[in-house]
């Protein structure tokens, strides 16, 4: 399960700068360097200190962190939903993403022009992008409504559910709200909603791009965005993308740390952003630790042991017998799997076990 995040925003807000600082963040393990597949597509590793700690104990051949794909989606301007700019191409790119990283300009700089040449206005920027995505969703919905209404009139049960969902979405979108502001109670409605692949139902993280002085506590612009995002129940974060780009370009870990400390930032923006994205999508990590490799695997919060086994291989899920689980803290405390076993801390869990973040898993299965 690989996570894919799309970076959107108006021109000149700092999308490519953010992309560059993500992409030049040297990967945690040498065998998984950042690789650019296309100029605007990169794979980055998910930072996880636990892997390094475990590797010190296990001495594996390699460390394999989880990965996340990042796409820099350029060309989104006013009128994009009608095909302006790169129009539909970029909307297709967004559709393929699991989450949207919406960058908003929260810095003053006379050398960087805002679209149309007017003063910096993060709220308006956000609205322009939101509106384009909403218009595209309305188009999707109208096309579906005609189709589903016909089927519903002919007595099709599923189509009736779909019509209800479509109408609920249409109502909020027409008020200028995002489709994610609606939620559905029944499984059938949730499924119908999912099948639409709307743009504004995707989880969003608003990233306020501030200047260096505001890196730690934000500024008036970023506070405006935080206030409207809070109203929508959306998450935000503040990042000084240009500064972080400089940090990311430093070769050496100590230099990076020094720079971050000087700014008063404990953790790099890249780390914060990836962790936020994980949180946004309810993603967690379990770990397998052996001589060959210490490896992170991504799963969705609430998944049970067999489902998690299936992340490694479908046979593991089909033939699942039981899982041997070591809590991360126990592994670190006792120092080895053998010591954990001897201390009676290795847990045997069945198919109802809900895997927790950081669990070190060993699956027993039958093929
Ligand atoms: N002063 C300042 N300039 C920035 C900041 N972030 C980006 N820029 C500059 O703004 C310009 C546009 O940035 P870019 O990342 O290309 O924007 P994009 O069009 O959204 O991809 C570039 O010249 C960047 O160096 C920032 O936080 N402060
Ligand atoms: Mg760009």
Which key features would you list for this structure?
single chain, 367 residues, alpha/beta, DNA polymerase, domain 1, 3 domains, 7-stranded mixed sheet, 14 helices, 13 strands, 20% strand, flat, binds magnesium ion, magnesium, G_OBG, ATP binding, TGS-like_dom_sf, metal-binding
CATH fold field value of the largest domain? Rossmann fold
Identify low-pLDDT runs: 26-35
Largest sheet: 7 strands, mixed
Q: H/E element string?
A: EHEEHEEHEHHHEHEHHHEEHHEHHEE
Average pLDDT, all residues = 90
Number of strands: 13
Report the structural category: alpha/beta
The radius of gyration over CA amounts to 23 Å
C-alpha end-to-end distance: 22 Å
What overall geometry do the principal axes of the alpha carbons give?
flat
The figure for the number of domains is 3
Query: What's the architecture of the largest domain, going by CATH?
Result: 3-Layer(aba) Sandwich
Q: Which small-molecule species are bound to the chains here?
A: guanosine-5'-diphosphate, magnesium ion
Number of helices: 14
Give me the CATH superfamily of the largest domain. P-loop containing nucleotide triphosphate hydrolases
Give the helix proportion (percent range): 40-55%
What is the beta-strand fraction? 15-25%
CATH class of the largest domain: Alpha Beta
How are the strands of the biggest sheet laid out side by side? 2-3-5-1-6-7-8
